[in-house]
Amino acid sequence: MPLYKTLNPSAQTSVKIWKITESYQELFQPVTLKPESLQRVQNMKSELHQRGFLSVRHLLAEFGYTDEDLFYDENGKPHLKDGKHISITHSFTFSAVVVSDDVVGIDIEKQREKIGVIAHKFMDYEFKYLKNNEADYINKLTVIWCVKESLYKLFATPGLSFLQHTLVIPFMMNDGETTAWIDYKNKKSRYHVAFLEFEGFTCAYTLP
Q: Which tens digit of pLDDT belongs to each residue from 3-38?
């Protein structure tokens, strides 16, 4: 299908989300890939990952970019040749790209009960305000994961730990936004993060 959703949180920042309903061939035919991108997508063992990869190239086109405009640094962080900041995510049948004048991060995750089993691996402080008997407990856990993943992508620093170096302050699901912190090597950084839910998925992205 075409573009699923566009969000413009500021004049400098735009988020575009794609719902992946097309086949691999339908996604592949309209795009032009660099040799290294072509090799990368052909080497993927999962067609779901291949479709996610290609859907991101369609999102780039929605912003007016091509695969040639995108490159990755030694930490795996994506960049655009024109100097704009970009972050990329895909999960199962959705992908998203955020482009901004400022450093940004974005993540999409499918809401699944099993996140409750691994919650202790990515959060500590947050247990103080979460109650596992809340009706929206899994939703909140997924928001917290997405927020921390978006911070991780933004920070792009080896050694950053979700558990030890990030925290998300209390929020309600209907807030649609929260504040999060990175505390890494004696430096504290505060971030404003927006989130939304759709079709059993959660998306969070940092705001300038």
A: 999 999 999 999 999 999 999 999 999 999 999 999
Tokens 């947050």, residue? 126
Cβ burial, residue 105 (10 Å; 0-12/13-18/19+):
buried
How many Cβ atoms from other residues are within 10 Å of residue 126's Cβ? 20
Taking CB atoms within 8 Å and a gap of at least 24, the contacts of 125-131 are: 125/167, 125/168, 126/167, 126/168, 129/170
CA distances from 47 to 4, 19, 22, 42, 97 (A): 21, 15, 11, 10, 20
Convert the pLDDT of each residue in 80-98 to its tens digit: 999 999 999 999 999 999 9
